[in-house]
Design goal:
The complex is a heterotrimer.
Chain A lengths: L1 H26 L7 H19 L3 H25 L3 H20 L1 H4 L12 E2 L2 E2 L3 H24 L1 H11 L1 H6 L4 H27 L9 H14 L4 H18 L6 H22 L29 E2 L2 E2 L10 E12 L2 E12 L3 E5 L6 H8 L7 E6 L2 E2 L5 H6 L2 E3 L12 H6 L10 H6 L1 H22 L14 H14 L4 E5 L7 H13 L6 E5 L3 H7 L3 E5 L2 E6 L1 H4 L3 H8 L2
Parallel strand pairs in A: 7-12, 7-13, 10-11, 11-12
Antiparallel strand pairs in A: 1-2, 3-4, 5-6, 5-8, 8-9, 13-14
Helix pairs in contact in A: 1-6, 1-9, 1-10, 1-11, 2-3, 2-4, 2-9, 3-9, 6-7, 6-9, 7-9, 10-11, 10-12, 17-18
Chain B lengths: L1 H32 L6 H18 L4 H29 L4 H23 L13 E4 L2 E4 H23 L1 H11 L1 H6 L4 H27 L5 H16 L4 H21 L7 H13 L6 H5 L4
Antiparallel strand pairs in B: 1-2
Helix pairs in contact in B: 1-5, 1-8, 1-9, 1-10, 2-3, 2-4, 2-8, 2-9, 3-4, 3-8, 5-6, 5-8, 6-8, 9-10, 9-11
Chain C lengths: L2 E10 L2 E11 L4 E5 L6 H9 L6 E6 L2 E2 L5 H6 L2 E4 L11 H8 L5 H14 L1 H5 L10 H13 L5 E5 L7 H18 L2 E5 L3 H7 L2 E6 L2 E6 L7 H7 L1
Parallel strand pairs in C: 3-8, 3-9, 6-7, 7-8
Antiparallel strand pairs in C: 1-2, 1-4, 4-5, 9-10
Helix pairs in contact in C: 3-6, 6-7
The chains are: A alpha/beta, B mainly alpha, C alpha/beta.
Chain lengths: 572, 294, 232
């Protein structure tokens, strides 16, 4: 009986480890293989605090969480600089170092001999000794951790994590501070792993470095990938399956000496087979959500006249002639080539300005400078009397400037609705602290945000598709979603990079009709487009760029009547 | 004091040469195929155990054991490419997916070796190693061979890449896979070639290490980590950079004995990596050498 | 007719770029495709060459269907492709680039082919040891043409050879194109953003818009600018 209880306790323990690791790898796409290191740091911290400082178990647990979260946050820093493969190496190295330190810092850790006599926890004055008494505690602790993780994952914070996983640049362009989120999620995952570590230390009362090896990290990875990355229930299923599976192997009467390596082979095989044949895991991220749009309570998906998610509808239509954004003598070189050469350009409030010019004229570069993805070598960029030079992309985004990308940069494996919701500005509910300490507020704000997102989807005609994944939309629908996401930022100035490219003629008409309505809602628009039909049908004025400079601007007909400009556009 | 420094430097050069060989074997695969081939570590381990099985288990001559170990390494490396990576690439799997599969292969084979050979260190004897003392600095003929073999193989690799048609095609694929396809190079075959060469180079590194320190099933994990760090430090795509990265790690680890408490020893290479990532993400020699090399 | 494209539909992932496009190229012709950015010109060249496969439609070359087969086979059958921008291996020397260009050529013939390239572009001979990435833009373009020429292709697909070049170089490169056509009897399908220049070298012109042919005819018929503004 004790044996089954022990297995149940292990399942509780690994549920904590796998769900917290899932936050990193499944939700944020941060591929770290150091989770056993966090687990170990938590275990050692907690054990040492009770052994050397006589701390009570709850206090030691708290200490372990804090220490490990701090370490996690620090590990998050190189993750800001590198992605993908390098992060794997860096975390791999971190795992090896932590193991090396546990093994060799004899004075503190007593090396391979480990720490013995770690006290058991006491609850309401009762010491918990037997596994049977430990099990309820294990279930409660794991349950709390699961709830915390689940709440984080489905909160606005979790939504941003997924957006970062899908496309970091796009998330940044929506005003998300990537630095904050990455460090926070590493600290969070570390803190949760420390709970498991502390729990383990006080449960088995003896720890040594061999419990926190690379193999352990890989085991946790196998649990998450087999269960399904990006789905916490998947991690739960994966935990049960992978903790139980080797126990089942016991009945195969494999000699003890080779039982451990045999288990490892099993995990390795599962990893290889799953990435090949079932990359989404047993329960994929979207196995439950696909095709079931959550219609908001009392949600009216019509676009209201007057004030709405689009912004206030102005009584007076377009063009009051006031400059909203002014570039003056902006210069930008790439390795000796002047992409922009003293570019001056004014975007007037409430108008649709078209940018045209031959290849390499600097149109997209201008967008990159305005949005802060590139910094100008010289010149000034004034927006409502404020200098934008030197501001970061997410800061500029918050001032009300948003751009679309030629290659869309949607969040493909998020729902259509989430693609829009994540772009709504001013979500203080994305802060971790608020998620926990102002939960009712978060729920209320979330409901309001969903309503606004639906309204925008209705505006572009995608309300029906709200529950589908962005990657499952047709290309034309994806282009409409780009527009909805852009509008969700509530930006006043929208920079559209080829909104109609790659579309069939009917869809071109549809998207033009939408864009034409935007100035009515107080939007100022600048559009780059090579299809001159689109320019003719949308833009006034048209600004003609060549070799990084503005050489003409005026009504489309005026521009296209000039023989000189034709020479430049069509070559001499 | 000075003698200690000289001794540590010699030790560093010896282990650095071995890291350099390991790094170029990993780097030629990474540079050509852009595959983060973690399982290279297990190819390395398998070569060591192969040599052990033939030379000690079957009592074959050492040189024959080495040849057979190279064959085993090539078969295993190419097998992983053909049966694990290629199917994943056909599915347009992300590089990280390929990496997970690589880790999976690594632990499968590592534990299979552990079951088959047990985990205690395996020694290969039969190398006529003698001690040489030069001006207060001691090293063995094995150490000398390690340096000579590593650098000889490095130069042979460069000769191949610069002097032969297939070597040039490999460099072409490394610098621009799209262009390689346009001129009609069969990139899939070149990938297999890179895995064969990288794996073949891992075998002598593994055997030289085993002759000195003995083989354990987990030797490949540290080895591939050091190789990866050396390649990143040197700059991905530059073989001389990888070799220099390997030398730096060897020297730093040995000089480190002087400065750093032993429990942090394993952190030295990682520390170098961290500095490079933070201050020069393209790698130390990446920019300068990148243009000229694979 | 050397090349026939019939009702081809092609694109990348979700995106459909070519909507039932058809065109023909006769032997030893120079045909230019013009049109706005994103109209599908490059996509069509890539589809003909075989690095992209059509979803629908057929491509015929020398009387046989070639759609859907690997580009390496097309290279062996005499189709060469010079991609947009830097169609060279920047890290390799000029000579190595040309050797790789001749990767599929019999060893015995390589020397002759190199000579032919050097006689057309003497600068490549002078600089054969220089790294391709350090050549000027115009020289790199000549090298890219040279790499295609060592194949002695029957059909040469050129994607914006004048892109990013100074006006006098544009002239030079396009003169080289005409020279290749004349000297080696190479059929050329050319994508060119520099419309005027393209009109000067081409025998026939296709105007592409939103993945379809919207106009075809002799270059003279497009001399009027107003017409171009409408077609783009």
């Amino acid at each position: 009986m004790d044996y089954f209880i022990h297995v149940a306790i292990l399942i509780a323990l690994y549920t904590i480890l796998s769900t917290s690791y899932n936050l990193l790898i499944g939700y944020t796409g941060l591929f770290s293989i150091a989770h056993a290191a966090f687990y170990g740091i938590g275990a050692y911290t907690s054990a040492l605090l009770t052994l050397h400082f006589g701390a009570s178990v709850p206090l030691a647990l708290l200490g372990a969480i804090v220490v490990t979260a701090l370490v996690g946050g620090v590990i998050g820093v190189p993750a800001l600089r590198v992605r993908g493969d390098y992060l794997v190496i860096a975390s791999f190295g971190f795992q090896m170092i932590v193991f090396g330190v546990m093994l060799n810092w004899l004075a503190l850790t007593r090396g391979e001999g480990g720490l013995a006599g770690i006290p058991r926890p006491e609850l309401f004055g009762i010491k918990i000794f037997s596994p049977a008494a430990y099990l309820p505690l294990a279930v409660v602790v794991a349950g709390i951790c699961f709830l915390v993780t689940w709440w984080i994952a489905r909160s606005p914070f979790g939504r941003v994590l997924r957006a970062i996983r899908e496309d970091e640049v796009a998330a940044q362009s929506l005003g998300k501070d990537i630095v904050y989120f990455k460090i926070a999620v590493f600290a969070l995952a570390g803190g949760l792993a420390a709970v498991a570590g502390s729990f383990y230390a006080h449960y088995v009362t003896f720890i040594n470095p061999l419990s926190f090896t690379l193999d352990e990290s890989i085991f946790i990875m196998a649990v998450v990938l087999v269960g399904g990355a990006g789905n916490l229930w998947g991690s739960l299923v994966g935990t049960v399956a992978l903790v139980m599976a080797p126990e089942a192997l016991r009945f195969l009467r494999i000699p003890d000496a080779i039982a451990a390596p045999f288990r490892q082979i099993l995990y390795g095989l599962l990893l290889v087979l799953f990435v090949r044949f079932r990359p989404q895991g047993l329960i994929g991220e979207h196995s439950a959500t696909r095709g079931t749009p959550k219609v908001p309570a009392g949600g009216d998906t019509k676009v209201e006249e007057g004030s709405s998610a689009l912004g206030t509808r102005l009584p007076q239509t377009s063009g009051n002639g006031k400059p909203l954004l002014t570039l003056r003598d902006v210069t930008k070189s790439f390795g000796g080539i002047r992409a922009l050469d003293n570019l001056s350009l004014t975007l007037e409030e409430g108008r649709i300005t078209g940018l045209i010019g031959p290849n390499g004229a600097g149109k997209t570069t201008a967008f990159n400078l305005i949005t802060g993805f590139l910094e100008p070598d010289a010149g000034s960029i004034m927006y409502r009397g404020r200098e934008l030079r030197g501001a970061k992309p997410h800061e500029i985004s918050r001032l009300g400037i948003a751009r679309s990308f030629q290659d869309l940069r949607l969040f493909p494996r998020m729902t259509v609705l989430d693609n829009v919701v994540v772009a709504l500005p001013g979500q203080r509910t994305e802060r971790l602290s608020l998620i926990f300490f102002a939960a009712p507020h978060v729920v209320r704000a979330e409901r309001e945000n969903l309503r606004r997102a639906y309204e925008l989807l209705a505006f572009v005609g995608l309300a029906e598709k709200a529950g589908e994944l962005a990657e499952d939309l047709s290309y034309a629908e994806q282009k409409l979603l780009v527009l909805a996401r852009l509008l969700a930022t509530q930006a006043n100035l929208l920079l559209l990079d080829e909104p109609a490219s790659g579309l069939d003629p009917t869809s071109v008409e549809a998207i033009m009709a939408l864009i034409r309505r935007l100035p009515d809602y107080g939007k100022t628009i600048c559009v780059i487009e090579h299809n001159l039909d689109v320019i003719k049908g949308l833009a006034d004025p048209v600004v003609f760029l060549n070799e990084g400079r503005t050489i003409a601007s005026g009504a489309p007909a005026q521009i296209m009547a000039s023989p000189h400009l034709a020479d430049i556009y069509f070559g001499v | 004091m000075l003698e200690l420094f000289a001794q540590l430097t010699v030790n560093g050069l010896v282990s650095g040469s071995l890291f350099a060989l390991l790094a170029i074997s990993f780097g030629v695969i990474l540079g050509t195929t852009r595959t983060f081939h973690f399982a290279h570590g297990i190819v390395y381990t398998a070569a060591a155990y192969g040599a052990y099985a033939f030379a000690e288990g079957l009592s074959l001559p050492l040189w024959l054991g080495v040849v057979l170990a190279v064959v085993i390494a090539v078969l295993l490396g190419v097998g992983i490419e053909v049966f694990v990576y290629q199917p994943l690439r056909r599915l347009y799997a992300s590089p990280l997916t390929v990496l997970i599969a690589s880790l999976g292969v690594l632990i499968i084979v590592e534990n299979a070796i552990a079951i088959f050979f047990s985990t205690d260190a395996k020694i290969i004897s039969g190398f006529p190693s003698r001690l040489i003392v030069l001006g207060g600095v001691a090293f063995t003929t094995l150490h000398l061979s390690t340096v000579l073999v590593s650098w000889a193989l490095f130069f042979i690799l460069l000769l191949y890449l610069y002097g032969t048609k297939t070597g040039k095609a490999m460099r072409g694929v490394a610098t621009s896979p799209e262009m390689a396809e346009i001129v009609g190079i069969d990139t899939r075959r070149v990938f297999v070639g890179a895995f064969a060469i990288g794996s073949a180079l891992a075998a002598p590194a593994a055997i030289l290490y085993t002759l000195d320190k003995g083989a354990t099933p987990d030797m490949g994990v540290t080895a591939v980590l050091m190789a990866a760090i050396a390649v990143i430090v040197g700059g991905v795509g530059s073989l001389p950079g990888a070799a220099l990265g390997g030398m730096m790690i060897g020297l730093a680890r040995n000089w480190g004995i002087w400065l750093v408490p032993s429990e942090w020893q394993s952190a030295i290479a990682f520390g170098i990596l961290l500095l490079v990532i933070l201050f020069r993400p393209t790698g130390l020699f990446g920019v300068k050498l990148r243009k000229a090399e694979v | 007719m050397l090349l026939g494209v019939r009702e081809v539909v092609a694109g990348y992932g979700k995106k459909t770029v070519l909507h039932r496009i058809s065109l023909e190229v006769g032997e030893e012709e120079i045909v230019a495709m013009i049109g706005h950015n994103g109209a599908g010109k490059t996509t069509l060249l890539r589809t003909i060459f075989g690095v992209l496969h059509p979803r629908e439609g057929e491509i015929h070359y020398r009387g046989a269907r070639i759609d859907g087969r690997r580009s390496a086979l097309n290279v062996r059958d005499g189709i060469a492709f010079v991609p947009q921008g830097h169609g060279v291996f920047p890290d390799l020397s000029v000579l190595e680039n040309l050797e790789l260009g001749a990767h599929t050529v019999q060893k015995a013939e390589v020397a002759d082919r190199l000579e032919a390239v050097y006689s057309l572009f003497p600068i490549l001979g002078e600089r054969h040891r220089q790294q391709a990435g350090t050549l000027s833009g115009g020289q790199q373009q000549m090298l890219a043409l040279g790499m295609a020429l060592v194949l002695r292709p029957q059909l040469l697909l050129l994607d914006e050879p004048s892109l990013g070049l100074a006006p006098f170089l544009v002239q030079r490169v396009l003169e080289a194109v005409v020279e290749i056509n004349r000297r080696f009897k190479t059929t050329i399908l050319l994508v060119e953003q520099n419309v005027r220049q393209a009109l000067q070298v081409a025998r026939r012109v296709y105007v592409i818009k939103v993945g379809q042919v919207v106009y075809t005819g002799a270059p003279e018929s497009l001399a009027q600018m107003q017409k171009l503004w409408q077609l783009f």
